[in-house]
Amino acid sequence: MEFQSLSLALLMWIGANSKFNEFETNVELPAVQFVSLAKIHEISGLNAGVGAVYDEVTKTMYLENNFDPKSVVDQGYLMHELLHHVQFENKVPYRRCNKEYEREAYLLTNLWFTQHGLTAPYSETQVLFQWSVCDEKD
User: Fold this and answer.
1) Region 30-34: what's the mean pLDDT?
2) Domain extents for the chain?
3) Pairing between β-strand 60-64 and β-strand 31-35 as defined by DSSP bridges
4) Can you list the alpha helix ranges (DSSP code H) found in the chain?
5) CATH classification of 3-95, choosing from 3.30.2010, 3.10.530, 3.30.420, 2.40.128?
6) Does the model's pTM come out above 0.70?
């Protein structure tokens, strides 16, 4: 499946499985760059646990060089970053801190995995606990 077609299909899935409807997910696709994991860590400011990142300023998704569009796992991580794009394009009013965006994205990523017969990659309890409280540095 061509990358653009995959991205559009994932936007439709987001519209069907999140609070965003088909009008809110009807956004221009973000730019995509395939880079090393070290570059993703550099962009995100994190050294571990990050395999992709979305830059809301440049509207660019950074995915690992070895991204496989046929992999359900990689599709799930692409969907996660596309959700961030949808969140920013719709200027979601609930944003008080980055954790609110991430909580929604982690929970939707878990749904993607379980709908495809895979184990959810994130503990729902941990997501709700770790990503629920905004602190001053957020």
Assistant:
1) 97
2) 3-95
3) parallel
4) 3-17, 37-44, 72-89, 98-115, 124-130
5) 3.30.2010
6) yes
